[in-house]
Specification:
InterPro entries: Aminotransferase_I/II_large (IPR004839), Asp_trans (IPR000796), NHTrfase_class1_PyrdxlP-BS (IPR004838), PyrdxlP-dep_Trfase (IPR015424), PyrdxlP-dep_Trfase_major (IPR015421), PyrdxlP-dep_Trfase_small (IPR015422). Helices cover 47% and strands 13% of the residues. It has 16 helices and 13 strands. The strands form 4 sheets. It has a 7-stranded mixed sheet. It has a two-stranded parallel ribbon with strand order 1-12. Strand 7, helix 8 and strand 8 form a beta-alpha-beta unit. It is globular, with a radius of gyration of 21 Å. The N and C termini lie far apart (55 Å). The structure holds 4'-deoxy-4'-aminopyridoxal-5'-phosphate (PMP).
């Protein structure tokens, strides 16, 4: 008899299972608006030209593939700091930020979560309602208790800012608060700068520990604009965790490349924190992989390739905005004043919460080959000029 008899089958990740169903769907006009990947107008995952050039340059002088330092490549780590915080940021200059290379944004969240569990064993973490499902899995998996604070307002497609603030004013000091820097997943609803300016003093004065997840830097308004909240927190004296990912903005999903930065109040503390982050990595996976970080480093250290990257990113961002406008326009034509889709224009980044219910999501898939995830979250980058009308018609059909 099997010693593994008590191991239940894995039901699968709902988003990835949906992707498989999509691939098996024979309909020519099927549209995938589920998984959080950026697709171009032709529905392909792009290979950025700056990355292609970086790969060529790297392949010309083959370097041996030894182990990287536990904390990752030193110049890469500095470039991450400069990109996330801005090279002139006081916290960067004061060397009071500890940054490690991470396995994507997920790896940064996991190392941060393990570090918190060890050094803040009683801290509990507060997540937006709703948030990326893996936030829950990662923090609970690290042994932390999770709670949620009010966030998305289903009635308006906007933010429950007052309720969010009330909750954050009432939670124990020392609590960790997970915040999305920009392009909130899954809702697309972000805080405005004015709202951040109200939130940040509450965080600092109440001694809350922000953990900022920045998985979409450059997909909202721009590289610096999207990092504004992170920089403002550090400037205000918040001691904070920041997870950043290059999966989307470099289209390097499978390379698993990102960073974890911990903003401390001085350089000595940052050195100690860096040491303990290394210890955390050592007992997890020992050291990070090479290729993704080398590619990103190659781009970011070159002014020409960086400028090119910023341009390619602007194109991806622009296409998403264009699709938001086109879908909004097509839906407005179908619904007129009967239903307001203005949230499509105010929400930012790759995702929108559409308010489409689970039974309607089901009908969209079965009757029209339009794939959304159960919550009604739509990935805008699955839209193209060629399919946006079909999607609008399908939505009009199921919403009636
Ligand atoms: N955080 C958020 C909010 C995300 O949406 C994602 C990716 N779906 C991640 C983190 C993880 O990104 P990565 O693939 O780089 O691990």
């Amino acid at each position: 008899s099997s010693v593994f008899a008590h191991v239940p089958p894995y039901p699968g990740d709902p988003i990835l299972s949906l992707m498989e169903a999509f691939q098996q769907d024979a309909r020519a006009d099927k549209v995938s608006l589920s998984i959080g990947l950026y697709f171009d107008e032709q529905g392909r995952l792009p290979v950025l030209d700056c990355v292609r050039q970086a790969a060529q340059a790297l392949s010309q002088n083959a370097v041996p593939c030894g182990y990287l330092p536990i904390e990752g490549i030193a110049p890469y780590r500095q470039l991450v700091q400069d990109l996330v915080f801005g090279a002139d940021h006081e916290a960067v200059r004061a060397q009071r930020i500890a940054t490690i290379q991470s396995l994507g944004g997920s790896g940064a969240l996991k190392v941060g979560a393990d570090f918190i569990k060890r050094y803040f064993p009683d801290a509990e973490i507060w997540l937006s309602d709703p948030t990326w499902e893996n936030h829950l899995a990662i923090f609970e998996g690290a042994g932390l208790r999770t709670h949620s604070y009010p966030y998305y307002d289903a009635a308006t497609g906007g933010l429950r800012f007052d309720a969010m603030m009330d909750t954050l004013r009432g939670i124990p000091s020392g609590s960790v608060v997970l915040l999305h820097a920009s392009c909130h997943n899954p809702t697309g609803v972000d805080l405005s700068r004015e709202q951040w300016q109200q939130l940040i003093p509450v965080i600092v004065e109440r001694g809350l520990i922000p953990f900022v997840d920045m998985a979409y830097q450059g997909f909202g308004d721009g590289l610096d604009e999207d990092a504004w909240s992170v920089r403002a927190l550090a400037e205000a004296g918040a001691q904070a965790f920041v997870a950043n990912s290059f999966s989307k903005n470099f289209s390097l999903y499978g390379e698993r490349v990102g960073g974890l930065s911990v903003v401390c109040n001085d350089a000595t503390t940052a050195a100690n924190v860096l040491g303990q982050l290394k210890a955390t990595v050592r007992r997890n996976y020992s050291s990070p992989p090479t290729q993704g970080a080398r590619l990103v480093q190659q781009v970011l250290q070159s002014p020409e390739l960086s400028a090119q990257w910023a341009g390619e990113l602007a194109e991806m961002r622009g296409r998403i905005k264009d699709m938001r406008a086109r879908l909004h326009h097509a839906l407005h034509e179908r619904f007129g004043e009967r239903r307001d889709f203005g949230f499509l224009l105010t929400q930012r980044g790759m995702f929108s919460y559409t308010g489409i219910t689970e039974p309607q999501v089901h009908r969209l898939r079965v009757e029209h080959g339009v794939y959304l995830i159960r919550s009604g979250r739509m990935c805008m980058s699955g839209l193209s000029r060629a399919n946006v009308q079909h999607v609008a018609d399908a939505i009009a059909h199921v919403l009636g």
